[in-house]
UniProtKB/TrEMBL annotation:
BP-aspect Gene Ontology terms: carbohydrate metabolic process
Protein species of origin: Momordica charantia
Gene Ontology molecular functions: glucan endo-1,3-beta-D-glucosidase activity
The name this protein goes by in its record: glucan endo-1,3-beta-D-glucosidase
Taxonomic superkingdom: Eukaryota
Keyword Hydrolase on entry: yes
Reaction catalyzed: Hydrolysis of (1->3)-beta-D-glucosidic linkages in (1->3)-beta-D-glucans
Pfam families: Glyco_hydro_17
This enzyme's EC code(s): 3.2.1.39
UniProt family annotation: Belongs to the glycosyl hydrolase 17 family.
Length: 340
């Protein structure tokens, strides 16, 4: 299975910036929802939701429309970090997420108005969970040389680590201890503006339908999710979530209408019998399922940060719906959803 994702819709007139960005930015990892490693075009959309309560649909929530991009580094003939940052600034992005703490990129982001999200690599989680000295060293060498001139505001400990069966239980159970050590290191160095979290895919849920039945997987619910939510709540951080409506739609095209997944449904709605909420699109359903799962563990008020979303603009011949037209429709509509 080969899928390409991008947030950009085809312009009505040729725009070389868009072509360059489509060609040169690649995301490093696979979406867990895809169930296998697939290449992603990596200018994604990011925004965060405020004051979301599991008692109301996110369609009624207060939304802060911060549009951002995910800056990956896999590919050939990539533009230099300074050129890449210049390109990103022309897009009027407000946030940039990188999948590590690359010095050249962080230097290029100095003295810009871009909020920056950096990431602690998955492979360091176990060791950092066991050593405060190692956590302090990572912050001292990866954050301090650039902060505050580079507006680092988010630090993600790993990427979709709970989706990887290969990671094994040791990494899963090391995640929250590593987050705690990183937060402690930031405090040690007097840094209080950086929120610590981790990115999660939708497969952290064991049940997502109806949304009011949202439940975290039994293998991580008590030992990982509950202490994580306690940490996020105590530090006033976010639940960072990657949401791709394409995947549930592609698995059930009979019962889930394409227009519903693309924010295009005019007369199609879904009423949740458990909550009484009515949904007009699949995206809202998916996010609410996570909110209800958090409520089930006693944390209904944690804010959700949509770290990634998009639609595939290409795929194999048998992957219907993965095309540039649907990608354009989804991306335009999700932007409208959060900037209206």
């Amino acid at each position: 299975m080969k899928l390409k994702f991008s947030i950009f819709s085809p312009p009505t007139t040729f725009d070389p910036r868009v072509t360059l960005l489509h060609s040169l930015f690649f995301r490093h990892c696979c979406s867990a929802s895809a169930t296998m490693a697939t290449p992603f075009t990596s200018l994604f959309f990011a925004f965060w939701l405020l004051s979301i309560s599991a008692s109301v649909s996110i369609s009624n929530a207060e939304i802060s429309s911060l549009v951002g991009v995910n800056y990956g580094q896999l590919g050939n003939n990539l533009p230099s970090p300074p050129d890449s940052v210049d390109l990103i600034k022309t897009l009027n992005a407000q946030i940039v997420k990188i999948y590590d703490a690359t010095p050249e990129i962080l230097k290029s982001l100095k003295n810009t108005d871009l909020r920056v999200s950096v990431m602690l690599p998955n492979e360091l989680i176990i060791n950092i969970s066991k050593s405060q000295n190692l956590a302090d060293h990572w912050i001292r060498t990866s954050i301090l040389p650039y902060y505050p001139q580079t507006k680092i505001r988010y630090l993600l400990v790993g990427n979709e680590i709970l989706s990887s069966a290969a990671a094994g239980n040791e990494t899963w159970f090391s995640l929250v201890p590593a987050m705690r050590r990183i937060k402690r290191s930031l405090k040690t160095y007097g840094i209080r503006k950086i929120k610590v979290g981790t990115s999660s895919a939708m497969d952290v849920l064991q049940s997502s339908f109806p949304p009011s039945n949202g439940t975290f997987r039994s293998d991580i619910s008590d030992r990982v999710m509950k202490p994580m939510l306690q940490f996020l709540n105590r530090t006033k951080s976010f639940f960072f979530l990657d949401v791709y409506p394409y995947f549930p739609w592609s698995l059930d095209t009979v019962n889930i209408k394409l227009d519903y997944a693309l924010f295009e449904a005019k007369n199609v709605t879904y009423s949740d019998p458990g909550s009484g909420l009515t949904y007009t699109n699949l995206f809202d359903q998916m996010v609410d399922a996570v909110i209800f799962a958090m409520k089930r563990l006693g944390y209904p008020d944690i804010r959700v940060f949509i770290a990634e979303t998009g639609w595939p603009n290409a795929g194999d011949y048998d992957q219907i719906g993965a095309n540039i037209y649907n990608a354009a429709v989804y991306n335009r509509n999700v932007v409208k959803r959060v900037t209206a």
